[in-house]
């Protein structure tokens, strides 16, 4: 026992002596952190919880994920400091910064900073094959459509998109897992998903039943791109076993965000860890193959946190001072 104590003390002493800068850099670091994600069954929860665990394990700070309503609520929680980290989509982020959040109209959520790019969120539709719905125009008048959790990216934008495409529907909210179950049970007609691919709920659905994953035709895609802050996107056929060919849809970028008051050194180390270990991030969720430094330019909405900006600038990705909080 004495020998073990002596060895442990010697090891601790050597580590402390070898890394005084690290100890100094940790001034102001929180004892723990929580990442705002979204509902279970969606990509945000899988990505966010895995990322939080990865950061916690490597930086020695307790961390985890919290189930939330998604990007809109995450913007509010990070702005107020109730959560220090969160995941958001650029559309809801812009509306929240402009004071147009449906959760707090008039409140400009400007204490939220960007950390790193995540991936694009495709907007896609899933229906049971037995319904015969193979295209948006096949969706029957008055169909019940599940749009995800209230306040999510899907719930914020997909109903507007469906209206723009002339679809007359009844709106249903719920977690992706819950809506997938309702679709399988025939309680709703369609689920309008907005999440990074592959979406866990869709992957689970197609194992249990036959589904149609529905894209957009030329006219539909052009109309949506012209009216909303999205761009065209192609879901590769390899993403789901139900796809025989690539599916053309639209998408919106996602970024990890942080309360702007978090210590620069802490955010720097998290950004460094995430951006320099993409293979590990992809093992957490395949959508993370787009979580690479080159996509930093996709952020045109949020100011950059000084800690994140320092890492990008040190590694050849220029972020001007005016874009840093």
Automatic annotation (TrEMBL):
Where does the UniProt annotation place the signal sequence? 1-17
> Per its UniProt record, what InterPro entries does this chain match?
TRAP_TAXI
CDD domains tied to this protein: PBP2_TAXI_TRAP_like_2
* Keyword presence, Signal: yes
Annotated Pfam families: NMT1_3
Ordered alphabetically, the record's keywords are:
Signal
Q: Does the keyword Signal apply?
A: yes
Q: Which PANTHER family match?
A: SLL1037 PROTEIN
What name has this protein been given in UniProt? NMT1/THI5 like protein
Could you tell me which species this protein originates from?
Answer: Marinobacter litoralis
């Amino acid at each position: 026992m004495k020998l073990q104590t002596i060895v442990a003390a010697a090891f601790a002493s050597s580590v402390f002596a070898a890394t005084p800068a690290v100890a100094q850099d940790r001034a102001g670091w929180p004892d723990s952190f929580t990442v705002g994600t979204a509902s279970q069954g969606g990509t945000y929860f899988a990505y966010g919880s895995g990322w939080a665990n990865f950061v916690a394990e490597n930086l020695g700070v307790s961390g985890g994920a919290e189930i939330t309503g998604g990007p809109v609520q995450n913007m509010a929680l990070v702005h107020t400091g109730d959560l220090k980290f969160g995941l958001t989509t650029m559309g809801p982020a812009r509306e929240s910064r402009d004071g147009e959040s449906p959760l707090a109209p008039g409140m400009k959520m400007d204490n939220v900073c960007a950390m790193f790019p995540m991936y694009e969120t495709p907007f896609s539709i899933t229906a049971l094959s037995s319904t015969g719905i193979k295209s948006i125009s096949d969706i029957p008048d008055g169909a019940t459509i599940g749009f995800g959790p209230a306040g999510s990216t899907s719930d914020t934008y997909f109903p507007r998109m469906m209206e723009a495409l002339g679809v007359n529907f009844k709106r249903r909210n719920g977690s992706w897992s819950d809506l997938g179950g309702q679709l399988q049970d025939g309680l709703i007609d369609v689920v309008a998903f907005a999440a990074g691919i592959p979406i866990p709920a869709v992957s689970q659905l197609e194992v249990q039943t036959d589904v149609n994953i529905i894209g957009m035709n030329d006219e539909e895609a052009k109309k949506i791109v012209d009216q909303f802050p999205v761009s065209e996107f192609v879901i590769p056929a390899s993403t789901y076993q139900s796809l025989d060919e690539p599916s053309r849809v639209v998408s919106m970028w996602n970024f990890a965000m942080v309360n702007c008051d978090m210590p620069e050194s802490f955010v720097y180390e998290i950004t460094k860890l995430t951006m320099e270990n993409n293979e590990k991030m992809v093992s957490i969720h395949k959508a993370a193959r787009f979580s690479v430094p080159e996509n930093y330019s996709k952020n045109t909405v949020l100011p950059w946190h000084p800690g994140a900006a320092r890492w990008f600038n040190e590694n050849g990705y220029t972020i001007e001072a005016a874009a840093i909080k």
